[in-house]
Structure formats: C-alpha cells, structure tokens
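I hope you will forgive my troubling you with a question about protein structure. I set the record out below, with my sincere thanks for your time.
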Amino acid sequence: MIQDQQKLTQDLLSLFPNVIREMPPISASETDCLVSTTLCLYDPTWPKSSDDTKISCGPRGNTGTEEKENSLMKLKLLSNEGRQEEEQYGVSTELTLCTDPWTIKKKLTISDRSRQNCLLLNPRTVHSHIMRYLPEVNQKMVQEGSGLTVDVYDHNTHTTHQMLLTKLTRRGSYVLSGGWLMDFVIRRALKAKDEIGMYWDLSDSKLHFCVLSRAPTRVGSGSVLAVPSQAPIEVSSGSVLAGPSQAPIEISSGSVVASPSQAPIEVSSGSVVLAGQSQAPIEISSGSVLASPSQAPIEVSPGSVLAGPSQAPIGVSSGSVTIASYSPLLADP
C-alpha cells in the first residue's frame, strides 16, 4: 500500500517538475507562518533607480516632529527676509486678515488746540506711514523746503480740506498746519484728549482723517439744571443758575440769589424766601439749582451772591437761594 502511494507521488512529480522544484521548502517554525500587517505604499520588488530615496515602512519615531520644526524654521527665515525686503524697498510682504486702517493715532493736547494752528506729529510715525510713500521730490519739499500741500479727507463729514505738511528743523518733528485750526479744531469742535486717526492712501494720495473717540465729559460737585432749549450745563463745583432762553452760568462755589426785589431780604442758612409768594422760609437741601427770569447771564464769585436786576444787595448766608417768583423757576427734569 505504501509503495503504491510513493509511486503515485513520483508520477505526479513527473507531470509538474518545474512547479514543485521552484517552491521553497516549508519550515516547521511558527515565526515563518506570521502575516505582516504593516501598510506600505510601495512594493519592495519594484525596480527603482539608485538615486531614489529610501522609503521605510517601519515606525517613523520623531520624524514628524523634526519635519515640523524644520518647516517652522523655514517660515521664520522667510519672515526675516520679508522684513529685510520691506525695509529696503518699502513694500510689505506680510499677509493679514484684517488691519486697522488708522495707522496714525493721537490724543489731542492743549497745544494742538492753541492759536499756533498746527498739529504736532511723531517723526517716526510720519516717516513710516507717510514719508516713505511720497516721491523724492515731495520728500525734499517736506524736509528741506517750505512744505508740501496735502489733501485731507474727513471721513465723518465727507469733506476734503488742504493742509501743509512740514518738518520742524529744531525739534525734528512734523506738523500739519494751514487750515488745522479753522477746518478741524473749530469746525469739528475738537477738545483736549479727543482721539483722532489718520492714514495715507496710496490710491488717491490723500491723508484720511477721522475722530475716533471724544474726551469724557467731567462734572464735579454741585448740581446742574438743564433749561429747555438749552445745551447741557457743565460745572466744576458749586451751583448753577440758568435763566430761560439764557446762556448757562458757571460759578465756582457759594450760593446764588436772584430777585427783582427793591429791598434786601434776610434769610437763614438752608432756606429760601419766595418774594411775593409766602412769608415763611422754605427749607431746601444744599446744592440746589434755581432758574431766574433774568435777561442777561449772571456771573458770580465764591460766597453768597445776589444776581438779578435788583437795586440793593440781598444778604444771604451759605446754602440759601432767594428768588422773585415761582412760575419761571425750575425747568422740566
């Protein structure tokens, strides 16, 4: 029986001699029977030239971190080159999603609102955002000549004005003069600590202007009475007397008395006597404000004051107010 099987095997080998002989020997070890699960993008048996880079299918280790560091170094080098190119040619190579157009900002000072009729600008800011965009001829006019006339567009009022850009040789600063006082300080009612913004537009060669923020309004101690058809009244201390259709009156401290009476009226501290209305004093709190039907603005000094068309002074103590009639006294709140 065994001899028959061996003979059958030999017969089969004779039928397929090449296939059987080229098959590798089967190993009994378990390690040769393992199947690799490593993924690779190429077949190692593919033909390749000698200069092809070697591709590894094994674990990469810290290769990803090294490549990321190399890419960041390249970006740093490019940014440094961009800065050098920007300084040399005056062209920016950096891309940004959003930028503030008002590259020149300043909070106005008292000197900017004076009669000198000029706006003082920082030399470094002017050189970075205005001078480098001007032709060489215009740059010489600003630095050495009588100045350069520039168009200034007001974004708030949509008007165009002209001012003179010059450089102060002594201080090295730049100033905008010409129509600064009339066209901007007075026309726009600019005050100290108002913040303005400007930038130079290359497309139309204009200087654009805008009031970014206003200075906060300060109200000190004392009370303020707003009269109908009158502007808000600002005081530093003390009380304010404002007559109907009259300009606001500013005082420093003390009390205000308004009365058309012909004789002096004696009142005590913290009380009010209404002439022609009642004989008993009316108690009021300190810091009160009354309106008088006087025809002219009343200026008062510290202490007790009588304001009005009366013929004789009215003696009052601190914190009291005397008035003539009740009808025009107080405005609507």
Confidence is low (pLDDT under 50) at residues 223-333. Helices lie at 2-15, 17-22, 63-89, 123-129, 136-143, 180-186.
